[in-house]
């Protein structure tokens, strides 16, 4: 078989490319030759701009004397021997001076103080990242940080970013080894800030980044979400791949949300929120309930009995708000039978090839706050544990379009029913706590250090097997609380269905003061609402 030569268009360089290269070379050469002319022209342009600015700043009554003085100087220069030539030379010299490239080269390398801090950090890492017998140690007592620290950045004299390499024999696959290095970096880089550590075990390097504080000025509002999506709070922009517009401080900006998805296609249809007292778990459940009312029905059981959900009582879509043992047990029993009814309806619709009924497609939310308090009351009175009534909604809620959100305090987690712990794969932990406690709740340690100042609603979230995310719950206070600011009270009341929001000054007036109790709508539970006997349920 005879080989044919390649076409000339493939073997030879096109003439167009050669012409472009020649033109580029000619332009570069002309730029080098004409560089003095370009510099003088740039200087004359700057001189003209300065003269125009000076003329604009000069008052009108002084412009004529200035022109006369300039004309007199020009006449003197013309009458002097070699005056015009000297004037042109001086003008060109000043233009060349003003047209020079005045770009100050950026300083390379750290300052003396920054170099001292980097060397101190390097020496502190030597005992952790070196072993005896290493022929070419990356970390040595008499070594320098230049080889180990690939990138670094300082802000206001403090380390804000550090990219360091470590030897391949370092046990980066062990959590204890990584934790020791993270604690050291946290201490040496400066406490009082949050840091994120990104480990790359494949290439043997770790990156330390200072995280900005999460925003605490976002209040409850309508979010741009699809049905079945609930915004738990907001996190870092690098942690999620979407943003939602939020209104804060009279302006609208984009914020990265932590979105919890429920429904038949969700892998984590139920949520468990744990926290210390006054850490924001009730605020989180109140925010979830307000968002759930946009597309579904809500059942609220308040085990604490503090009346934190009284603002939801009697609202359209709110089927019940219960805080007593008998009412809570009856409500949860109804929820269990309602889940069974929905399962039967879904099964019949699939077998007959018909669409699922509308009342089954409408989501049902069971919001349960402090269930262990109800369990303790039931144990004292010899009644069944109300948590056992959550077995059916938790196990079969995804198919029946039933979502359960439970909040409890950390000191009462041992009293939670096993089915609650097993079926709630979306987890939130709020309040100040160490990484080991966060790992005990979420199943994985956070990649960030604990916050020095923990406001209400601040914590971590993990949805299923996803990463651990920082979380700040939007401010959703009880609007009937006397200490609630007027703006936040108006924001919450505006989200309630069927609510007429009074003006902010009226909310902050005497009606909300300590001399007068706010008007609260009574909770009505009848056969036409939620609590129905088993005989009234038409499951067939």
Automatic annotation (TrEMBL):
UniProt key word Transmembrane helix: yes
Transmembrane domains' residue ranges: 67-98
Region entry Disordered, spans: 502-540
Bias (Low complexity) ranges: 502-513
Tagged with keyword Protease: no
Superkingdom field: Bacteria
Alphabetized UniProt keyword annotations: Membrane, Transmembrane, Transmembrane helix
Gene3D superfamilies: P-loop containing nucleotide triphosphate hydrolases
Name of the protein: FtsK domain-containing protein
The organism of origin for this protein: Actinacidiphila polyblastidii
